[in-house]
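Sat 14:20. Reprocessing the chain from the morning session after the first attempt stalled halfway. Input below, unchanged.
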Amino acid sequence: MRSGIIGVVAALFVVGAPVAYAQQSPSSPGNAPESGQLSQTDFKMLTDIRVGVIKAALQLTPEQEKLWPAVEEAIRARADMRYRRLASLRERMGQARDIDPVQFYRQRADVLADRAASLRKLADAWQPLYQSLTSDQKARLRLVAIHAIEGLRAAVENRGMAMDDEDDIDSWDLPY
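Finished this time. Tokens:
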């Protein structure tokens, strides 16, 4: 039990690293030049860390290990989709502001449908593994998930405050 607690505490420290990295200011070392955005390599590294933290926190049995590859693949697929979606958004934000509201709604619907499908695949991949977890493993998974969600919320709030400080925020007038 003691090693389990130590593992979870270590996992929480590792989960905090990507959040702290994501919260760095655009001029911080390690961020992509000029844009303040993570490079694809950095994004993949953070995904590797997240996957490692989850797996370490779960302390899977040999039988559960057989169910892990589907979960890991679904996590990585969602992360890759997220990176491509953010890159596409950055590209569109840099283009002219002549926005067709109907086209915007259709594109948004397509993005949401893709995200829903990927989330369903993730849930489907997790289901067999989750059902095999002990109550201790489920508690550790909840602890890691709660910490990750709180870190994400803080990162979003920090990003929002940084955006409020920028003068060009008014140019984001989107028809929605």
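Residues 11-15, 17-34, 165-176 have pLDDT under 50 and may be disordered.
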